[in-house]
């Protein structure tokens, strides 16, 4: 029984690690190539359709200094899941700005998981099952134990850093 369990765990681990990162598919819904599933930041920003807006928007975005000072005091070892569409206008605008905020916070990149969805807002292999993703981008903040603290859906209510600050204030 232990051997069978060990073999099952090894096969599962191989399937997870074998999952293609920065995978591109042709999305029938959008009739274009899109990213799907787990992405790296480099993979996301090198995807041609996404890159054309990412670079100038990232460079131009200036997070509010006072909000950032307050936010820096609250950021610890949280994790953030970014669910976006490489085809989506709101993702093309808000994802670069969100990463500018994270970079200014010196947020550890290993604590950010990036998942691309297709035009139906789906990913493969159950990656977003149970997350109730209806609009993209969706930025989900988790505490270090995996409990969801809050999310920013599609666009911020105030600013990305302001909404992030509100999520972090609820935690403390």
From TrEMBL:
Q: Which InterPro entries match?
A: Thioredoxin-like_sf (IPR036249)
Q: Where is the signal peptide?
A: 1-18
Q: Does the entry feature the keyword Iron, yes or no?
A: no
Q: Which domain of life does the UniProt lineage start with?
A: Bacteria
Q: Does the keyword Protein biosynthesis apply?
A: no
Query: Keywords in UniProt for this one?
Result: Signal
The entry's protein name is Thioredoxin
The organism of origin for this protein: Pedobacter chinensis
């Amino acid at each position: 029984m232990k051997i069978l369990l060990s073999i099952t765990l090894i096969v599962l681990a191989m399937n997870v690690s074998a999952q293609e990162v920065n995978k591109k598919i042709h999305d029938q819904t959008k009739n274009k190539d899109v990213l799907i599933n787990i992405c790296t930041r480099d993979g996301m920003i090198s995807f041609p359709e996404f890159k054309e807006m990412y670079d100038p928007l990232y460079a131009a975005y200036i997070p509010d200094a006072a909000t950032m000072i307050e936010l820096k005091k609250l950021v610890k070892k949280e994790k953030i899941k970014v669910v976006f569409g490489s085809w989506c206008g709101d993702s093309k605008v808000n994802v670069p700005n969100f990463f500018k905020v994270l970079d200014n916070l010196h947020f550890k990149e290993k604590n950010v998981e990036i998942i691309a969805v297709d035009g139906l807002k789906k990913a493969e292999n159950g990656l977003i099952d149970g997350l109730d993703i209806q609009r993209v981008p969706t930025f989900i903040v988790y505490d270090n134990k995996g409990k969801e603290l809050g999310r920013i859906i599609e666009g911020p209510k105030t600013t990305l850093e302001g909404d992030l600050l509100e999520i972090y204030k609820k935690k403390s």
